[in-house]
Structures are given as structure tokens and as C-alpha cells.
Amino acid sequence: xxxxxxxxxxxxxxxxxxxxxxxxxxxxxxxxxxxxxxxxxxxxxxxxxxxxxxxxxxxxxxxxxxxxxxxxxxxxxxxxxxxxxxxxxxxxxxxxxxxxxxxxxxxxxxxxxxxxxxxxxxxxxxxxxxxxxxxxxxxxxxxxxxxxxxxxxxxxxx
Length: 158
What we know:
Layout: H1 5-16, H2 22-26, H3 33-45, E1 65-73, H4 78-90, E2 94-99, E3 106-112, H5 115-128, E4 132-139
Antiparallel strand pairs: 1-3, 1-4, 2-3
GO cellular component, one term: cytosol
Organism: Marilutibacter maris
Protein name: AsnC family transcriptional regulator
């Protein structure tokens, strides 16, 4: 799908605050509110906008801890990789999971209410996924930046 300049503006604005009304978006994009609604519907239908979520302040959710985890696998057989991917995707406390190149195979962002809950999750992961040979944990001492926005650059004049 080709994104025009209006689509690109809308995507950046929606990633900043998806709760804005079409009227509020129209203040920033040179389109009518009805044109904005049509574009947003099309962007959703075509899968450009996958979903819209609320970002919760951790202070109001019991101050969970954030853990950055590196996983190493014994072997990278397709069936074992797929099983691990499904397992990771099904865990609510695993916010993000990346299959990566380099010395480790996966990097995870995990949130848990405390270290005991984190330890229990990791013990289950190892028990239910015997292909995981090792994991390393980094505990986040503070959050400098947290988000999922993907910058959508404007169209270059041409």
C-alpha cells in the first residue's frame, strides 16, 4: 500500500495519541473529519494500523519490574523454534520478543510484579521449552523511554 502525505501524518499522530477524535486530527492534517475517518478505516482494514492500545503508567499498575532477557537455544530446529515462539507469544508478562542475530537467539522484554514472579515465569519457560539452553537477565533500574511508535517519514519531494 502506498501511503500519501496525509496517511503519513495521520499515522504519526495516531501513534502519539490514538484517542484523538477526527475533529482533533483535522486540526493537524489538512483534511475534513469525515475524510480522516475514511482514511483511518482504510488504514485499519488494510492492516497498516494493526490495533490500538492504551499505554498504562507502571506507577498505577503496582510498579512492575522490567527485565530484559537474552535467550540462547541449543538448536534452531524449525519445530522447536515455532514451539518457543508460540509459548513466548502466549505469555502475558512477555511484552516483546525478538528473534535476533548474534550471540543470543532471542531478546525479550518482560514485566513482572516482583522478582519471584519473574523467576517462576523463567522456570516455567525452561521446563516447557527444553531447547532453551541459557538465559541472561538484565533488571531495568529505571525507564528512560518506553514506546512502540514507528516513525513514518514524510514523502520526499520529487
